[in-house]
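Operator note (shift B, R.M.): manual run for PH domain-containing protein requested after the automated queue skipped it. Running by hand, logging everything below so the morning shift can see what happened. Input copied straight from the record, untouched. If output looks odd, do not overwrite the archive copy; leave it for review.
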Amino acid sequence: MTEQPLTPTTPAGASDSRADDVATDGLVSPAAVSAPPFTQAADDERLSSTPSSAPLSEDAASTVSYTELGPLGVERDGLGIKGYLSMRDEGVTYHRMKRFYCRCVGVNFMRFASRDAASTMVTALFSAEVQKVEAWDGKGLWHTYRHSFKLSFTTGVVFNVDADSEEDKRQWIEYIEMALKGTEAAVEKWSAHASVSADIMELTPGGLAFAEKKCSPPKFKNDMMCCHPTCHVRFDSTGKRQHHCRNCGGSVCSDHSSRFAMLRHFQANHPVRLCMGCYRAQRFVQWLAMLLQRLSIAQGGVEGVKKPTLSKAEEEEVDTLLTMFGDEAFGISDVIQVLHLHRHKSDEAYAHAVNKLLELSASNLADFEFFLPQLFHMWLTVDWTNNNIKAALLFRVMCHGTQLHIRLATAIYWLTRAAIDDSCGWGFGQSELYVPDYLYRKMSMCKLLMINVEMQISHGDWSFEIDKDLPASTEQAAIIKCFPEQSPA
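Run finished. Output pasted below as returned.
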C-alpha cells in the first residue's frame, strides 16, 4: 500500500533530519570522492531540473514541499516494507537524527544512502536482524520526536527511530511484529527437523550469518598481479594501487574492486571493498535470503501474508478467464496473450492462466516449444520485487519445460546461459565494468534457474558448486548450501 504524498513543507529547523539523500559519516564511495562539491547555485539548478531525485541543500529543504519529491510514504512490495525513517548514525547519541531510506524484508533491516540505492539491497550502509520493536516516547537529550519507536538488533545495537507520520509508524511496527512472529514460527519448524538435517539451524533466522560459528576475515594475499581472471595489471610496474577484497583476501586493482557491500558472516558493521566475483556471490546470497525470508513468514500462516481475499473485480476477472479456457479452440498462443495482458492484474487470474498453459503443453508440445523463447523473455523481464508471485509461476513454467523433453531443457539452458553472460558483461562487445543495471539485476534469478535446470537434467538433488559465475568464498558457499534446508516444502 502506497501512502499519499505529504503536502506540508519541511520546517527550517528540521532540515538536517529531512534531507532526501544522506551519506553516513566515514563512508565515502569512490563516486563521491570524485564528485564536485555542492554549492547553493548547483543545488538550485538541480532542484529546477530534477526535483524528485536531486539532493536538497539545507535552505532548499525548508522551502520545497514533499509533493515535489514524489510519494515518500511507506510502501509495501512483494518482499517487505520500505520508506523513510529518521535515525542516528551510530545508535543512541545526543546528535539530531538524520533521515535515511530504509527497507525491512522479514527480520532483515537495511539502511541506504538514498531512495534510488535501495533498489539494490546489497548496497545497504547498515544491515542487521531485528530482535525486538518497542515503544519510545520520543524524548531525547536535546530533541523530541513525535512518531517514534525503538528497534533492537541481534548485534546488540539499539536505534531510536522516527517515522514521517503516525500512519507510517503504525505500518512499520505492524510489519516488523508480523515478521518476528512469522520467523519464530519458521524457527520452530526448523528445530523440529534439526535431527534429520544438521545444516538447517546453522544460519541465523535472517539467513545472512552463522548462528554459532564465528568466521574471521581472510588474510590479505599481497600478490603482485590483480586476481581478476581477465586483468593482467601488475602493481609493481604500472603504478596501479593495490587493493584487497575483504571477502577472499585477493589482491585486486581499483577497476575491479569498486563495489562495496556488508558481510554479516564476518560481523562487519559497515560496507567493505569486494572484488567483482565476491560481489556477485554476495548479491546472490542476499537475494536468496530475502526470498526465503518472504517464504518463511508466509509459511508461518501469520496474518498479513496469507492469500488475500479477492475483490469483486478480481473474481469477475477469474470467471471470465475460466470461461475462455473452456473453449476447445483455446491454444497456447492464446494463453501467452492472456499472460501478457494480465501481467499487472490479479495473481489469482495469472495462476489460472499458467495452469492452463501447463495443461496444454502436454498435448501441444510443438506449440509450447515454438513459444518457449517468448515465455523465457516474459519471465526474464518480470519485476521480482513487486510481482514475485507471477515471477514464481513463470519460474515453474521454465522448470516444467525441462521435464517435457531434453530438447526443451537444452534450449532453456542456453537461453539462461546467454542471460547470465549478458548480466555479467561477458557477452559480445560488452565490458564487465559497464554492465547496465537492468541487466546486472538479472544475474541472481538466472543463476537460480540454471542450478534448477542442471538439477533436473541430471536428476540430482538441489546443490550449489562454486564456478565462474559465482566464485563464492568458503563462507558464502556454506550459506548458500544451507538455504534449501530452510526453504518451505
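Quick read of the result: The longest helix spans residues 166-192. The radius of gyration is 24 Å.
Leaving this for review. - R.M.
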